[in-house]
Structure formats: C-alpha cells, structure tokens
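FAQ
Q: What does a multi-component entry look like?
A: The components come first, one per line:
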Amino acid sequence: MEGNGLRLENRLRELKPVVVLLVVCLVAGGALALTHFFLEGRITEVEQAEINRALSEIFPPATSFDKEDGYYEALEDESVIGYAAIAEGPGYGATFGGCDIKLVFGIEPDNKTIVGVRIIVHSETPGLGARITENWFLEQFKGKSLENLTLKKDNVGEIDAITDATISSETVVEIIQEKLEEMVGLLPEG
Amino acid sequence: MKLQEFTKGVVRKNPVFFLVLGLCPTLAVTTSVENALGMSVSVAFVLISSNLIVSAIKGFIPRNVRIPCFIVVIASLVTIVEELIHATSLTLYTNLGIFLPLITVNCIILGRVEAFASKRSTFDSLLDGAGMSVGFALAIICVAAIRELLGAGEIFGYAVPAIAAAPALAMAAPPGAFLTIGILLALLKRKGVL
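Then the predicted structure of the entire assembly, as tokens:
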C-alpha cells in the first residue's frame, strides 16, 4: 500500500511540468482570444477606412462606391466608371507569423484593364518586400489585363519584380490575377 | 539602492551598446525616428509586462519547462501588441512589418526574463524592464536619427534642405546601420561611458 502511494506521488511530480505548461498555454490562449474579440471590429474599421481612401485614389472622379457581391462598383453620378475588388494572400511575412498582403485594385468597365493598385496592409520586410507599396512598382500594373499580367522572369513577362523580394512581388501579381479572373466572371455584363 | 536596477539599463548596461543584444530590430527599423519610436514602445510594453508576469509566476514554474513557459508569455504579449497596433495605426503596422511579430525572438526580452525576472522580485523586475526599455529606446532612436538625417535628409519626416538635396543613400541601407552602431559604440567606449 505504502509503495503504491509513493509511486503515485512520483508520477504526480513527473506530471507537474506538463500541467504547468498546459495551464500557462491555456491562460495565454484565453488572453489572446479576449484581445482578438475586443479588437477585431476596430481592425476591420481601420482597414475599411484605408480601403475607402484607396478606392477614391484609384477612381478620383467617382462620387460613390456600391458594394456588390465580391466587388465594388465605382459610380460617377449614377453611371459606372469602373470596378474594384480586394485581393489578399500570404506574402513573405506570413511565413513568420505576419499578416497576409491585402490590396485594392480597380479595372475599367469595358476592356477590364487595371487602372490602379493600392496596398492596404502587409507585413513584409522593411526595405525589401515592403517596397511593394512604392509607386514605380504599382504603376506597372496600369493598363494590364488578365492576358499580360505576368511577373518578368528571364526577360519574359510584363512586370518587374522588386530586387531581393521575389516572393512579395509574386504574391502581389498572383492575388490580383486570381481575383481579377474571379471578378470578371461576376460582373453584370459578363 | 533599488533605483540602480532602473538606471543600469539606461547607460552603463545599455542592452544595445553594452550587452549588444537585439541588433536585428536595431539594424532593421532604424531608417526613421518614427519607426524607431514605434518599435521602442512595442518592445517596452512586451519587456516590462513579460518581466512582471514571469517574476510573479516564477514560483510555480518547474525549472525544466521554464523556457517554453517564458516563450508562451512573451509570444502572447507580442501578439497582443501586434493587434493593438493593427487596430490603431495601419501605417505604423506596415512600417514595422515583419519585425513586429519578430519581437518574440528579440533576445533582450528572453535575456532579461531568464537572467533577471526569473530570479528577482516583481518590483525589481519592473525597474529592470523599464530601465532596459529606456536604454533600448535611447539607443535605437539615436541610430535612427543619424540614419534618417544622413540617409534621407529628413528628421522626423521634415526635410533638412542642406542634406535632402544629396542624401547618403548607403546610410538608409543596412550597411549604414552597422556603420552608425559601430561608430557610436567606438565613441562610447572611448569616452569610457560603457
């Protein structure tokens, strides 16, 4: 009987690190869930404000934007002057726990070519991947359509990647491509 | 003298210049004073809170799982800071980029938690964390001010006409950070401050 009790005590002592680590993780998880619960709405608000600003930068003459299913409609006094959509996907930063790259792009209503791209949020490396927000890079997308929206590799392709930031550059091109394809299918006149 | 626990981190045992820890953010985000300030505040929050939490729970943590426990505490605090910044300033959030989640592996934090907070009282740990945070902030703001001035010809975003015309671009690139830290370190050693 006594031997059993001693063995049980040893067992419990061995289990202590496991239990402590488990409790620490549970408390930390709870704290994170709470933080997320309280800040989620605020984050969406901040991003929406940035999206609205980007939309009016892409379509300066637009007087209002209608949110449709999966895309935005840019209107200048009731007539459609373009469409816009939000594209997002994991860049380089996401590999290390950062957030996805999220951007807005606008297209012309007739030939569906890109009129502008604005980055909303990203967590790429400052000085390298973070240069996806620079004008010279984003300007390259202007006038591109689904057919010629490709990253330049071995002199084939239309868009120059950022030096030392191929993954970030690739992500931007790919997420726009994907979303553009999806969006063209959704648009009213097909 | 308790106050020593605070002051030692500011100059004599400055985490960047004396301990030469946490160079990754020091090199990376010191391209502008604004980024350096954002990084300082984030690191201060994580460093002080993890010092406080660890010194408070140190009695319950078995020695063999202490490091995983500390990491869970630090990583959770970093995630909280990250969400807070995301919810307040998108500009700062994207400027700090990947270095924000990487505060988790900033060795100043795990270093202070393991070397100090896991052995000392909560109050001492608070002073130590605050002192080290001030020291880190001073160091990276100095480096950032020099780099922003020489590399971009600006200070706090305002152009300095004489330099803005022809800034030394190398100072804005990573080698500029090494040069600045090296020269500051040499000067501080020479003056016998460290």
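Q: Is there any commentary attached?
A: Sometimes. For this entry: The beta strands of chain A are 64-67, 72-76, 79-89, 101-107, 114-121.
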